[in-house]
Amino acid sequence: MTDFHTALGKNNANYQPLTPIDFLIRSAQVYPEQTAIIYDDLTHPALTQTWRETYTRCRQLADGLRQLGIDKNDTVAVMLPNTPAMVECAFGVPMSGAVLCTLNTRMDINALSFCLQHAEAKVLILDSEFADYVDLLTETFPQLMIIQATDAAIETDDFGQMSYEALVGSATDLDNWELPQDEWDAIALNYTSGTTGKPKGVVYHHRGATLNALSNILDWDMPKHPIYLWTLPLFHCNGWCFPWSIAERAGVNVCLRKIDADTILRLIAKYGVTHYCAAPVVHSIIASGDQALKDAISHPVKGWVAGAPPSETMLSNMEAMGFHITHVYGLTEVYGPVTVCAEHPDWAELSTAERAQKKSRQGMVSHLMAGFEVFQQGTSNPVASDGEEVGELALRGNLVMKGYLKNRKATEAAFADGWFRTGDLGVKQPDGYIKIMDRLKDVIISGGENISSIEVENTLYALPAVQSCAVVAAPDDKWGEVPVAFIELHQGAQLTRDEVKAHCRAHLAGFKVPKHIVFATIPKTSTGKVQKFELRQAAKSIDYAAETGA
Questions:
Q1: How far is CA 144 from each of CA 137, 262, 405, rounded to the nearest angstrom?
Q2: I need a surface site. Which of 25, 217, 351, 465 has the fewest CB within 10 A?
Q3: Which Pfam families does the UniProt record give (predicted)?
Q4: 201-205, strands of its sheet edge to edge
Q5: Considering only CA atoms, which of 191, 162, 180, 203 is closest in space to residue 61?
């Protein structure tokens, strides 16, 4: 047997830790004058920045943080909308040796305080939009250094130790930054939504961030120099790792402070946006924009959708605009998207309804993920590839988190058998594609029968008047639980409860038809996910006897 190990070890010449920081360095070297960032709210002069300038500012940010005393593995938290500062932080913070903690911009003060304390954050870069938090944060965390980030879109009094621009401008040594010594070093800390208990801190490493950024490119066949619109919150799984993907492709980050259909359509037309990502509700918002603005877009646009399966209505609306939508799936614990509904050429010949059926699946594992499986619950036995047997989705590979910060028990439970169990229930179809049926906690058990809330929701989305919907369980004396449908209508649309129930009876088994219909605004997270925990609480307290047919 040949010895392929002796005197063939790792050394600096043949092994360097993987890190997405290298993508920034290369783009600045190869395409220094190419545009890296555009920030245009259409009311103020647009900011544009090249890759050379971005690389310089990221090095300045790293040195500025080090001058504040930031060292290896310190936590630097940021609470920012999708502004240029947020893109720069994706590189400048880890270049300082620190770990980047991007905070949900819709956190209440209690959740924000928990995350800052749990992460032991030393610096908080805070957008002026959240100035109301400053007094309480200063009182609660007297040692926390608060940096004010702002732009022309927001006017407020100065707060904190200094401004973000002052921090960047304080740099004196552009070489005072570092690459990771080990690719297993932490690069980012992301908090789960905490819908049941306290949020959990998910730790990412440089290796996973690098590989997921590359996997995004491969899964999307993303060419050089894409023009990417930030409709997806950059705080969510570090923007699904796309700040690093766009740097590798030397693309353009088109920043966006808030979601607005007409602004999005104008930016797509003005800058020739080629790619964007969003939850289904954001795609629907874009499709509801001004028709003249939609007509002004004459080039191909590609979008990724995740968070819920794309409905036939949404796909049809996007296709009518010339947008090509691909369904992906992932979680905070796996850096964002790690499966893709890879399309086949013959799908183009299908009807919209048939194509939506195909695209609603979570699909196959991403290029750089090792495994995607559906196991019989509580076992390591795969379900049959028959599209019928339901099991729990599991993932494994280099795109899985390091673990949960300061939570050994939860980490060990998550990796108990060498797989990360997602808590999502699904089936494996004969062609190997996996389709989610529901969240484990969202399955409704009525009279001993399991009801998939996703199946009922997809049926409701076929009604043109429905903009958003969610189906949850409500306690019932006879059946134990019954499905309740919360429905948000498009502006100006009309729909009655009787019409909803008649539609459901025509497409669902009788026990799956919602027992109660509630017309209401659907609560969502800033990433567009429906907050079902709030609806479950509402479903317990609604006076159903007061329902009318209107």
A1: 8, 39, 20
A2: 351
A3: AMP-binding (PF00501), AMP-binding_C (PF13193)
A4: 162-163, 145-149, 121-127, 75-79, 99-102, 186-191, 201-205, 403-404
A5: 162
Region for residue 195 given its phi and psi (left: phi exceeds 0; alpha: psi -120 to 50; beta: otherwise):
alpha
Output the six-digit token pair for 435: 């389709």
- In total, the chain counts a number of residues equal to 550
Dihedral angle sign, alpha carbons of residues 54, 56, 62, 65: negative
SS3 content of the chain, % helix, strand, coil (to 5): 35, 25, 40
Indicate the DSSP class of residue 452: -
Question: Is 8 in a helix, a strand, or coil?
Answer: coil
Q: How many Cβ atoms from other residues are within 10 Å of residue 357's Cβ?
A: 16
Contacts of 480 (CB under 8 A, 6+ apart): 445, 446, 447, 448
Q: Please check whether residue 92 is in contact with residue 59, taking contact to mean a CB–CB distance below 8 angstroms.
A: yes
Per-domain boundaries in the chain: 443-546
Residue 227 token pair: 């023009």
DSSP assignment letter at 210 = H
Q: Is 73 left (phi over 0), alpha (psi -120 to 50) or beta?
A: left
CA distance linking residue 223 with residue 249, whole number of Å: 7
- Compute the distance between CA of residue 247 and CA of residue 209 in angstroms, rounded to an integer: 13
Residue type present at position 411: T
Pair of tokens at residue 410: 């939860």
The one-letter amino acid at 231: T
Instruction: Please name the fold of domain 443-546.
Output: GMP Synthetase; Chain A, domain 3 (3.30.300)
By the 8 A CB rule, do 300 and 274 touch? yes
Closest C-alpha to 428, from 457, 456, 396, 391:
391
Which residue type occupies 341? C
Alpha helices, H only, 310-391: 312-320, 352-359
Residue whose C-alpha is closest to residue 276's, from 311, 209, 321, 331: 321
The answer to whether residues 204 and 400 touch, using CB atoms and an 8 Å cutoff, is no
- Provide the 3-class DSSP secondary structure of residue 72: coil
SS3 191: strand
Q: Are strands 391-396 and 420-428 parallel, antiparallel or unpaired?
A: antiparallel
What's the CA dihedral at 69, 70, 75, 77 to 10 degrees?
Answer: 80
Give 416-468 pLDDT, tens digit per residue. Answer: 899 999 988 899 999 999 998 777 667 787 865 668 788 898 899 989 999 88
d(C-alpha 331, C-alpha 87), whole Å:
21
pTM metric for this prediction: 0.85
Structure tokens at 314: 């949404």
Q: Which two tokens stand for residue 192?
A: 């789960």
Could you say which DSSP state residue 550 is in? -
Q: 392 has which bridge partners?
A: 375, 425
Find the distance separating the first CA and the last CA of the chain, reported in whole Å: 79
> Directed axis angle between helix 21-30 and helix 84-95, to 10°?
110
Contact 387, 427 (CB under 8 A): yes
